[in-house]
Amino acid sequence: MAEINLHGRDFLKLLDFSSEEIEYLVDLAAELKQKKKDGVLTDIYKGKNIALIFEKTSTRTRCSFEVAAHDLGMGTTYLNPTDSQIGKKESIADTARVLASMYDGIEYRGFEQEIVETIAKYSKVPVWNGLTNEFHPTQMLADLLTIREHFGHLKGINLVYMGDARYNTGNSLMVVCAKMGMNFTACSNKKYFPSEDLINECVEIAKKTGSTLTFTEDVKEGTKGADVIYTDIWVSMGEPEEAWEERIADLEPYRVTKEVMDNAGSQAVFMHCLPSFHDLNTGIGRQIKEKYGLNEIEVTDEVFESPASIVFEEAENRMHTIKAVMYATL
């Protein structure tokens, strides 16, 4: 494994990291994953503690940070939206300085990227982005590890993102593909493409890595030959319920179906950062069925439950890659 030192670094967005540093974190995650499978303890940070700020609740991110911290020997304090006074009774800067005086690392999952950047600015300990409106870097490491486990490599992989590519997951996939020499396609209604500024930044990165960036509204053309078909829920946490009507009207043609997977080819796998509305076994799924008559939203149950779906391997890898980030930066 390459000798790269990330000690004391914040992990806020992958634009801050080189291709070599990202690859190092994926390599480290693979090594830590194997050690866990083999029952080898990695509790090198006994006596350390981390704070987990969750302004947006989560299953995978919270469990990943808590299990990874425990495996590394650390204690955790979970601060939910009602536990933390961040930005309400206490400024973000003051909260960062208080927590940094007590903890060895701080995770933030919430709203604007500016918040986690401010926490990092005023913190003397590493700060990790568990998700903001703009970026989702820990998810990207899990995706890279999962793709590499399946295909054996990253460079040259054709990844197609279907749905709303304007926010954290779509943005971050474009960034990480550009960084790692993977080919990124946003296949969606053009209203839902990433911002022009971020596209331009990624185009410059892609020139150095050999990545290609494509933006298309044509499902058949956009998904042909894809190695990875990736989607996410159409309405994000914190958005108004009224957004569903517009998103369904605009994005229904971009649902991931068996026809989409067949068009991609037999090599294609399906990925999703979860949770997913692929059936009627969720409250939101039942509401959408009642209001709009849909049994499935961003992906069909047939695809989600198919052999091509590697979503649960992807979910597991959240923990191993988050462990790698903490291991490397503390």
Write the layout of secondary structure elements.
Elements: H1 19-37, E1 49-54, H2 60-71, E2 75-79, H3 92-102, E3 105-109, H4 113-122, E4 127-131, H5 137-151, E5 158-162, H6 168-180, E6 183-187, H7 196-209, E7 213-216, H8 219-223, E8 228-231, H9 243-251, H10 258-264, E9 269-272, H11 283-292, H12 301-304, H13 311-329
Parallel strand pairs: 1-2, 1-3, 3-4, 5-6, 5-8, 6-7, 8-9
Helix pairs in contact: 1-5, 1-13, 2-13, 3-4, 5-13, 6-7
Describe this structure in words.
With 330 residues, this protein is an alpha/beta fold. The chain is 45% helix and 13% strand. The protein has 13 helices and 9 strands. β6, α7 and β7 form a beta-alpha-beta unit. α1 crosses α5 and α2 crosses α13. The chain is globular and about 55 Å long.
Name the features:
13% strand; five-stranded parallel beta sheet; 13 helices; 330 residues; four-stranded parallel beta sheet; alpha/beta; globular
